[in-house]
Amino acid sequence: MIRYIIRRLLVAVLLLAIISLVTFGIFFLLPKLAGQSTDDLAARYLGREVTPEGLAGVKAKLGLDDSFLVRYWHFIEGIFVGTDYKFGTSVTHCPAPCMGFSYRTNEPVFDLLLDRAPITFSIAIGAAVLWLLAGVTIGVVSALRRGSAFDRGAMSMALAGVSLPMFFTGLVSIFLFCRQFKILPTPRYEAFLGNPATWAQNLILPWVTLAFLYAAMYARLTRAGMLETMGEDYIRTARAKGLPERDVIVRHGLRSALTPIITIFGLDIGLLLGGAVITETTFSFAGLGQLMLQGITRSDLPVALGVTMATGLFVIVANLVVDILYAVADPRVRLA
Amino acid sequence: MKLLEVRDLRVAFPTADGVVRAVRGVSFSVEAGRTLGIVGESGSGKSVSTQTLMGLTPGAQVSGEAWFDGQDLLAMPERQMRRVRGAQIGMIFQDPLSSLHPHYKVGWQIVEMIREHEPDTGKAAARKRAVEMLGLVGIPQPDRRVDDYPHQFSGGMRQRAMIAMALALHPKLIIADEPTTALDATVQMQILDLMRRLQREFDTALIMITHDLGVIADMADDVLVMYGGREAEVAGRRTLYYRPHHPYTVGLLESVPSAPGVGGRLKPIPGQPPSLINLPSGCVFHPRCEYVMERCRVDEPPLREVVATEPAPGEEPAGALPGGDLPRVDLRRDGTHRSACWLPHTAVGLDAGVAAARRAASEAADAGAGAAEDADGAEPEGGER
């Protein structure tokens, strides 16, 4: 088990390295493919006052004329030990972990990420917990009461959940709960550390909106899985052992039905961030999604790169956790 | 003293296509320490009967009685039934891989059962008993294998583990549902040996469900042959092998490979088992029977006593008896041999002469059918004797 985890960790580090390399490569190549010289890029950085000295200074500071590998090395070095940016005579030291400065606002990218990431991850993780709990519970009850009013109702809701886009359910829920019935405040992000209660209160609607879509899918998956496992021979064995029905369902039935759910959850984590970005936009939260969008539309390489690395890290870590959970859940996986 | 006595068990499943009448009035009993073999094709109702006794057939319409140790299993509330399952009646199933939970350690699955029925047992004590049981069923290094998962066991070891689980609480009755069907032939013999040894050791009653007459020959004291949800024939083991009466039993015996006295080719029973939704009229076996008479198509034969004859001197036993060196038939005229067939009750056995006698009897019955149709009761055996 420990060896399995170590192996997975090594793979995760390798993956992160590849992600950074590929993303860096894309942003290095794109301007070249668009036919822009390094002068053009530097000019855009300078803004109105373009002088040859200024251009040279910017190019030197950002290393625009350096080769790909040198620039990539500079980037990696910044993350681990920090790096210096020289502009003319002035030197800006960027302590580790340094991911560069925004070309637009000159803010350190790492601080930007620290500022924005909690918003997106709060939405994503909260929604994931909610959808797993709701989806699995509804799925199990539906499977055990197949054909009942609950089952049919839940599966109709599930169909609605899968079909309705988040920006629709999100806006409808704001309209209903915040405007019509005034049960909830209009969502606005509050830091978790400030006041967890208001944090959660503000996040309820984004969570429900995002979770609705996935909970619907997971309810259907769990229902199908439970229907299948409850017909397995080992369920009959569990009953023949004289176990109470509750143990048969949870310990023997659900345990098996959960294994594929975990796998699919691992795959959905990537989508989850995408969903969180749409959700934060729907609710006007300034999260990673907004930052990413700005970074890309304004050719702000360090910001776009930083957001990509942060989301990549999140997906990899989440997958690592899921894989370990999976190995715990299904002993047969550990041999592979 | 009968440990389990089942009377007129009927099980039906309502489905979208109609009511599946899986079991239609079966009675049988098992005494402590003895073995009842239940034989039949798939769909004959053999597994459904026993699983219904344990309350493992959800959605079934059940009637009848099943007296186990002074209590009617079929009338028992679920809470009480749970205490019977596992603790007083153990079950062994056909496919040990799919019958053990793939995500739990083998030992844990045994411990779970022990602690369910004996909540006072500590984890360590229950585990110790699981190790003991695994050792008892012949699993090497049981103290280490107790922490293995089912997929780390071989097929035979998995079935040994299932047996260990079934026996862990020393139940009075074990129901083994095709316990060797999924195993290699060599492993089959080991498992049967093991079950016989443990049965003696624990003085457990055993119901052995199988379609393999070789297994029955090895294990059973009494045999119940089921067809289409009913008894076809009931007899002591030897009687059944030497003096089968029901053409279905005869067909089963003749279709066993390696049966001595049956030449080079196997003789299959033609046709398929009946649909349990649209059962044939009369005797359910009549569409496949080579001795079918007019009467068989109309009347369902009741289970009646067979009065067997003495075996001819030097007669070779037919059927799947291994070795052929068993003692001669122990002829009991105590009503233990019963068969649900209209053929004369003297027509028992497997040799060519009996086959001819059967054929003659069925033809004679059809020839006289017009006159003797209403003369029910003792005919046609009255004329033959």
Give a structural overview.
The complex is a heterodimer of chains A (336) and B (385). Chain A is mainly alpha-helical and 336 residues long. Helices cover 75% and strands 3% of the residues of chain A. Chain A folds into two domains: 36-98, no CATH class; 109-335, Orthogonal Bundle (MetI-like fold), CATH 1.10.3720.10. Chain A has helices at 2-33, 38-46, 52-62, 68-81, 109-144, 149-163, 166-180, 196-229, 233-240, 245-282, 288-297, 301-329, and strands at 83-87, 90-94. In chain A, α5 runs antiparallel to α10 (245-282). The longest helix of chain A is centred in the C-terminal third of the chain and has 38 residues, at 245-282. Chain A is elongated and about 85 Å long. Chain A starts with a helix and ends in a 7-residue tail after the last helix. The mean pLDDT of chain A is 84. In chain B, a hairpin with a 2-residue loop joins β9 and β10. Chain B is built from 15 helices and twelve strands. Chain B has 385 residues and is an alpha/beta fold. An eight-stranded mixed sheet of chain B has the order 6-7-8-3-9-10-12-11, sandwiched between helices. Chain B has a four-stranded antiparallel sheet with strand order 2-1-4-5, covered by helices on one side. The relative contact order of chain B is 0.12. Chain B folds into two domains: 2-220, P-loop containing nucleotide triphosphate hydrolases (Rossmann fold); 224-372 and 380-384, no CATH class. The chains are: A mainly alpha (336), B alpha/beta (385). The A-B interface holds A 232-234, 236-244, 247, 251-252, 255-256, 259, 329-332 and B 51, 54-56, 82-87, 90-91, 93-95, 98-103, 105, 112-113, 116-117, 149, 151, 162, 165.
